[in-house]
Structures are given as C-alpha cells and as structure tokens.
Amino acid sequence: MGQIRFTASLVIIATILVGCKPDKPPAPQTKLKNGSQATAAVYRSPLAVAVCPDGKTLYVSDRTAGCVTILNAASGEHIRNVKIGGEPGGLALSRNGKTLYVAQRKANSIALLDTARQVVTGHIPVGPWPVAVALAKNSNRLYSCNRGNHSVSVVDLAAGKEIKQIAVVRDPAFAVVTPDESRVVVANFMPAGAATDPNPASEISILDTKAMRQIARVKLPRGSTMARGLWVSPNGKWAYAVHLLGQFDLPVTQVEQGWVHTTALTIIDLTKPMPLATVLLDDLTNGAADPWAVVGSRDGKTLWISHRGVHEVSRLDIGHIHELLEGKIPAELAKIKDAQRDNIWVRIKKDKRQIAELARDLTALHISKTLARTPSGGKGPTGITLSPNENKLYVANYYDASVGVLDTAGGKLLNTISVGPQPQACSIRRGEIYFHDATRCYQRWHSCASCHLDQGRIDALPWDFMRDGIDNGKDVISLVHMHHTPPHNRRATRPDPRTCMKTGVLGSHMMPPAESEVDDLLAYVKSLRPEPNPNLLQFAPAAKRGKVIFEGKGNCSRCHPKPWFTDNKTYDVGTASKGDPDGKYDTPSLIEAYRTAPYLHDGRAATIKDALTKFDPKGLHGNLKALTPKEIEDLIAYVLSL
Ligand code: HEC
Ligand code: HEC
Asked: Does 427-527 match 536-640 in CATH topology?
C-alpha cells in the first residue's frame, strides 16, 4: 500500500466511536471505558449509502456527525460509528467488500476503512475538497471529484497514491466509471462561463482513463444546474444525468407548472458523446425538486432517483423510454391525444427533431406510465443504492437520521432504519431544513437551495425577479455574511435582512412563511461561514502583493473596505443593463469570490479579470488604468484569496 499513511493503533481505537463528534457547536462529551467518546447532541445527516457484496451490512456516511455508521441491513441493528475526519461524503466499496473508500472533503483525502476490523487504516491525499469517489475495479484505480480545484484525481490503488489530477469544468460533484473502464463520466455541479452566454448550463465531462485527460464536454440543456446524480448503463452506451432545469430568463411571476424550475433527466449517448433526450420528472402540478442521485438495475431497464427537495424517490422505466424514443409505441399510448394533436411520443416518431420538445413536456412520462414517485421515508433523501439482489433500495435521508428501505418490485417504502438518535432541531437547523425543503414552495417546484446551491451560495444563473422590473436578470447572490451587508439584492431593493428574507420567500415560493420561520431562516443564513480558498497557498505571494494594490493605488478599498469588502452603498461602475436605467448596483462583498463566478449583477463576467477589464471600458471601476498587467494579476490573486 506504499504511501498510504497508517495511523497508530491508539488512534485506531479512538476512531471507534459510540457517538460521533459534532462539528459545530461542540457538544459536551463523555469519556467511555475504551477511550472513545460519546456526545450528547449531534445532528445526524446521512449523505451516502453503500451495501456490502453479501447484502448484509450497510455503510452510511454522515456529514455533520463526522462518521460512517455501520448497520445490519436485515435487522436494522446499529453496529458501530467509525469516526471520519473532515466531512465524510461519497463512498465506494472494493469488489470484495473489504475496503470502504470515503471522501473526506475538508481533509483533502480519501479514508480507507477496513470493513472487517471496522477501523480507518489509512488516508490517500487527493485534490482539494473531494466529495465523491468512483472505483475502477479491474484497473485498480480510484477517481475522486475535487470540487476545490475543479479536478478529478486518479489514484493508483496498488501504489496507494494519487498519480494525476485531471482538470474538468466546474465543481465536479459525482463520477461513474464505464463498465469497460475506458472512460470516467463526471457531473459538473454548476455552469461555467458567463451567465449572459447564450447557453449557460452544467456540463458532463468525459475522461479518457488511458490518456488521463478530459476528452469531451457534453452540455446539458440551457439553464441546467445541480448536475450531480449520474449513472452509466451496463452496456456502457448511455449515461443518465439528473439535474434542475431553470427557466431563468422568464420573469418570476409564478412558479406554477414549471415556469421557473423543472426537474430533469438527460440521456447521453456515450458513443458520440451527445445528449439524446431530456425528460422531465415532475408532475404537471407537483414538482420533483432537487434531484440528488440516480442508480439503475443490472439489466439497465429501471432507474431510481432521489429528490432531496420533496422527500421522494422516483422509479423510472428507462428501458421503455428508450423503446418509445425508437418509435416503438404501444397502440394504447398512440391513441392518447395532446389537445387536438398527436402526443409527444407519436410526434417524435414522425419527426426526430421533436425530441427537443420532451424537455418542455410535463406529460410525456405520465401518459407513457414510465414514472412513479414514492416517499423516501424521511426528509432530504440524498444517496441511494440497490441491494446486491436488487430487491431493495436503500435511501439516506439527510435530515431524518434514517435510511429508507424500499421494495423495488412494488416501489413502496418497507421501513426505515435509524442511524442514531436525532436531537430536536435548533433554530439554525430548522432554518436549514426549511431552506432545503421544496414542499414549502407552491406546487413544490424548488427550494431556496435550488438557486442558492451549496449552503446558501449561488447557481451561476441570472434570474429575472419582479422586485426590480422585468427583462433585467440578476445573478444569484451568495448569502454568506448577508446580514452584515444591507441593503440587499443587486439593486438594493430591500433595506434589512429580515424584510429581504420574508419577501425572498414570497417571491420565490409564492407561499408566505410564518414569522418564526423567517427567524429560523435568518438564524441559518447567519450561521453560514466562509471557507478559505483551498488553493490559497498556490498564489499566496501574488495575493500578498495584490493586497497592497487593493488597499493602495488600485483604490478598491474605497468601496470594498474590510471587514466585509463592501461599503454597503450603490455605485455606477459602468455596468448598466438596459432594464436598470441609472446603472447603480449594490457593491458586492468579495468574500469567497473564488467560488462565486460569474461576476457583476447579471453575471456577464466569467472571471474577475473580465469584470475589472473587459466590462469597465470607461475606467469607472477602481483605478485599473494605473496598474501594469502584472499588478492586475496580483490584484486578482488577492481577490481570489478573500
Ligand atoms: C429561482 C432562484 C431563487 C430561489 C428559488 C431563491 N432565490 Fe434568493 N436570490 C435569487 C437571486 C437571483 C437573488 C438576487 C436578486 C436580485 O439581486 O435582485 C437572490 C437574493 C436573495 C437574497 C438577498 C441577498 C443579498 O445579500 O442581497 C436573500 C436573502 C435570498 N435570496 C434568500 C432566499 C431564500 C430564503 C429563498 C427560499 C425561500 C430564496 N432566496 C430562493 C434567486 C433565488
Ligand atoms: C466606486 C466604488 C467601487 C470601486 C472603487 C471598486 N468597486 Fe468593485 N464593485 C463596485 C460595484 C458597485 C460593483 C457591482 C457592479 C455590478 O454588479 O454590475 C462592484 C463589483 C466588483 C466585483 C464583482 C463581484 C461580484 O461578485 O460580482 C469585483 C471582483 C470587484 N468589484 C473588485 C474590485 C476591485 C479589485 C477594485 C479595485 C480595482 C474595485 N472593485 C473597485 C464598486 C466599486
């Protein structure tokens, strides 16, 4: 195992916890006889679930409790919590089931859990912020999605070390290795590039495992975000990606019938590679918001999808959908009319170009009876996995400390297994649950987290809300530190955080919140903390020089002063959009600017450099004219370090 760092046996003993350590706030701890610790109040947040090859044991990663919980799959008995450092996320089990690989986002490494001894035996360092792992079992490689630097690490498991980082598009969130192990298919969570580009959308990266590089980028339909769930068919021909589809340039006057958001599955033909079709997973009046994961059966005919926002799981008859796309339409279905005309499947049979219409058709899967949704047994279903004999589907319910067990034949919930006691939610946690709950939205089309992805941050799309007129989209604003930076919204339309939050709920969900719920949302948003740029070290000297320029001759501190990097005032810095006649915008905070691209009120700037140079032709935005190209680079390095 070469370079894997083996932990001392004492540490190993300490990692077998009866209760896991909390991340925040620290709870009182009790020493137990074996030197491990039990804690009083720790929220449980099951995120990913894996099942061992004999089907007897479940492994559940828990993000806030910081552990992998081991459960008896049949009896539901809680066997053990194994402590995992640095925010455990994605899981992968070796073929023989002896090693569980656990992504540790904050530790920039993969933990190796010995499933027989139930201890962590080593760590493999990878790129920053690994959130998901995928195994290539024959070639003995492991791939990790590193959101911190938009790369995928290739780990040689025999040597026990990372051998390459492959650059992908943006925020890789999930990866699947094709059955022949020649490709890795990667879902990039958020769109890259400017929000004013013709087709802002998340992309799927295709990596060649031999050449160890990205060989293709497949764009999902315009307005796609939250691309995470991914599965590849057993014959290696199809990749299935689940994601949101945002109609960001329609004014947000109603959310009904998918006016703002729909939930989609895109089928990608890996042999080309190109999208074949995008189908919608919602009902006409009942959204299926915030898809998280997708897995399929060994025969490739059935897909299962978790919908975090609506606490449900979908079962999709993908085999039949492929037949319909090939024009094999049962007589019963062919008879169904769409008002006066043929239904969508018949139209596609007559004219292949009609396939594009599927991405707008909320009836297609319902008239063909290829989709069924069912409760997941708890709030916030995330990771899912099938039992080895495929008669059960296990679902991690993030907010409910449970794993839902579904019967795959009937598609119904059989029971739920507890991963441990869940303390009563405090205001922050209640706010977090509301924020991620699309059932708080009229007809369940989206949650706050559908646009403010990643704990209150952004989705990189310019939405056209009514608060400042129409036809003038505004790039989503990160909510980190928002309570320190009133007034709110790009046009400073709301004076204080509370009013902003309340109108925010009404404007996006079309359902009024209770006063106590506004308090909870505020408590949650106030609890959000910036995370240091994971690539800080790389450009530290340049950032140091840039700081001097920022505070000196660049004249940036005038409007972006410490500590929040905004003076809370509005200015015209030469960026006026047609719909905003005076061109005045709220000075944005620059904290976490490294992860909030694109920039400026409508997201027209893909990079900080573009914001400061290309989009400031009149020289109104700071004193850029006084700087040399090298000084501008240093200045940018500093902004990226905030
Ligand atoms: C459809 C996408 C979308 C949804 C859903 C959404 N937001 Fe927003 N949010 C935005 C955009 C876009 C902005 C910037 C609007 C502007 O500048 O006019 C914003 C701005 C905000 C702001 C102001 C931030 C600041 O500092 O100026 C708050 C607070 C906020 N949203 C909270 C929420 C909450 C709470 C929810 C859920 C009830 C929510 N949002 C749902 C897109 C969305
Ligand atoms: C006169 C006040 C003022 C000065 C001086 C100023 N800015 Fe700004 N800055 C703004 C305003 C206002 C915006 C928002 C413009 C928009 O949304 O179109 C902005 C936006 C930005 C953004 C985009 C942030 C985002 O999230 O969209 C960056 C980066 C930035 N400024 C950096 C700088 C730097 C670096 C300097 C110094 C060279 C500087 N600013 C000087 C007022 C100022």
From this structure: yes
